[in-house]
Amino acid sequence: MTSAVILVLLMGALAYLRAPVIAWTIAIAGWIASLQFAWGCQVPVAVWAVFGVIAAVLNLTPLRRAVFTGPVFTIFKKITPAMSQTEQEAINAGTVWWDRDLFSGKPDWNRLLSFPDPKLTAEEQAFIDGPTEALCKMIDDWKITHELKDLPPEVWQFIKDQGFLGMIVKKKYGGLEFSNYAHAKVVTKIATRGGTAAVSVMVPNSLGPGELLQHYGTEAQKDYYLPRLAKGVDVPCFALTSPYAGSDAGAIPDFGVVCRGSYTDPRSGQHHENVLGIRVSWEKRWITLAPVATVLGLAFKMYDPDHLLGDKEDIGITCALVPTEHEGVCIGRRHFPGGAAFMNGPTWGKDVFIPLEWIIGGREFAGQGWRMLVECLSVGRCISLPAMSVASGKVASYTTGAYARIRDQFGLSIGKFEGVDEAMARIGGFTYQMEASQDLALTGLDIGEKPSVLSAVLKYHNTERMRKTLNDAMDVHGGKAVVLGPRNYLARAYQAIPIAITVEGANILTRSMIIYGQGAIRCHPFVLREMKAAMANDGVEFDKAITGHINFVISNVFRSLWMGLTGAKFVGSPKGGEVAAYYKQLTRFSSAFALLSDMAMFSLGGSLKFREKLSARLGDMLSNLYIASACLKRFERDGAQKEDLPVLKWAVETALYDLQQAMDGFLANLPSRMLAAVLRKVIFPWGLTLKPASDRTGTQVARSLMELGPTRARLTKGMFVSADETDPVGVLEPALKAMLETEPVEQKLRKLGRDGKFKTITARERLAEALAGGIITQQEFDAVTRARKLKRDVIMVDDFDMKMEHHDAQLLQRLIF
């Protein structure tokens, strides 16, 4: 019995440590020998013979390939689903980074904490404090969205003159050459003031031709276009989406046929006869900046039926740069997405002849468009919409925290009601998650990574959290947020939520197909190696990958069971104190996630990619592992401030709980019920033990938003707040400060009123009566008067003349009640 226990413990330890096959062989041989020499058991020769055969098969590569991995390789090649070229290019795009650690089952937390903290250079900080601050002061969002339906000409010119359109362009071409972190923080700050300006700035930097030109453009293209893009001489757009191909961008019907033709170059006015080019026809929709663009980035399928370029007829998706003044290019009409005022519209053309030199990168990059797009998209998707989402979270946190403290009902600040408190906890917690997740990804970008899987995680989860925070902020503000007008600082962002949910890969598609679809192959330590070996018919490489994979699975079974039984109490953590348990739980669930991934692929094979609900839950597991780890990284980056512990706890505990629920849902719906039952016992031997963040923690988060403290300051750092108290956001903090300072006086006045000490009726009259009776001082009278005026400014909404439809400025002169 004792020897059997020793064997179990020995195998468990070897599996937990992911020992190589030779270590297993030596350890088990030693155990068998101990039976005979230490325990006095007679081990039959047959046992040694069987062990010797198995050991030889496992340790001698030629024999292992002949007996085991060779036959497996034959089967694997038959069952591995074929990948289209677009799928292969999407999977090969970008790099894997911290997401690979999370897929490993043994994340290296010291590696996470050693990643450099994102910082702004002096030049970048000066740009944010200078031109970006100035731009925000120029923005009147109500005028832009309600009256002009566009940015004012002077704002457009300022954006161009100050280089906002060339933040990513290298300095040698006249651009600012900012880091990805600085780029994101500029967009975030502008977005806290107005979405139209933010989108107008972010699209040329994240999704425009500039990114493609810098990576793939010819020297002539770079020398001509990049200086013009950097200074706003040219305004770019990129036309990919068509009415018939949205999420399935690879299926665009727009096409170009190689031929000879003539054209006049609108840039130089020169006419060219009988040149080799492409006759392109397209119809695009939902293209941001298309109505005002001067240069059109165009994606189309290219064909060469007459073999003018070579033997290949179907060249593939190609990207070209076309001046919008070129004959046949149609722009100028616009859409109004969600009521937003940023320029967005269609472009179309029929049989428009362009020379081959207009292909981005020249003729040798013909057919390389899809690869170019997916590689660059992984960068833009980490920056643009995630930054807009962070901005919404900051605005929601800043405004809702102040408003909930200032606005009172039933004699109590509404933020102190538990129902409101619950919504505010989500606002603060999700804002912390969003910025932490983006900042970690930006760190990766700035050290040279292109984390395509994490970009999908950010795109989906930040925009979904933006939706939740804005919904909660609208609920807390109530009627204040319902009435449109200059005073309403939430409604326009709320109206625009569907835009972020839809563009750059629809959220439903991103969650159900992209996150795990890419992650399972790219981030897994062995799957991509096995697939590449199968495609290359490389049995040697497959043997190395499959043996490593088997060891990986066995290890994760033992690791998941052990950490489930012990609650991960004996797992190492890079930090002590309250956060240690979080690192330990994430290690536990990293192993469990890796095990579930392998079992899903094992039991479902190629059909897993069509099981979108299961794939979505696996994606949720990976995403929440990332979000929780990013929050822990942020906490340490901020100096592990004690005041921030409640919001960290809410953020991490919510992510861990969501992760557990995704695993529970996956196991409840895995088709192989026997396998699901075994996995449930391994991963959750004591059941679902994790709970969501407690009500007490949520209340602490909510209260931190309503106080002028360091946590509120850190959560809202980087947003624009006007110093003008007549500004609807600028008035909030002065009003909050005034309310907090005069609260004791107001409490005294309310008590006197309840006790029947006043002869007057209205609040204003009673305040004057208290001054006359010596109950309060003149200083207290002045402070309460000011606080009440500021409070009124905060809670009032706009009304309009039914005929003139302009703001009634006399609202501010009404009596203070």
UniProtKB/TrEMBL annotation:
Ranges of residues in domain Acyl-CoA dehydrogenase/oxidase C-terminal: 367-514
Keywords in alphabetical order: FAD, Flavoprotein, Membrane, Oxidoreductase, Transmembrane, Transmembrane helix
Domain Acyl-CoA dehydrogenase C-terminal bacterial-type: 521-800
Reactions performed catalytically: a medium-chain 2,3-saturated fatty acyl-CoA + oxidized [electron-transfer flavoprotein] + H(+) = a medium-chain (2E)-enoyl-CoA + reduced [electron-transfer flavoprotein]; a long-chain 2,3-saturated fatty acyl-CoA + oxidized [electron-transfer flavoprotein] + H(+) = a long-chain (2E)-enoyl-CoA + reduced [electron-transfer flavoprotein]
Origin: domain of life: Bacteria
Keyword Membrane: yes
Signal peptide: none
Pathway annotation: Lipid metabolism; fatty acid beta-oxidation
Domain Acyl-CoA dehydrogenase/oxidase N-terminal as annotated: residue spans: 123-232
Matches recorded under NCBIfam families: PRK09463.1 (NF007000), PRK13026.1 (NF009586)
Family statement: Belongs to the acyl-CoA dehydrogenase family.
Entry protein name: Acyl-coenzyme A dehydrogenase
Gene source species: Vogesella aquatica
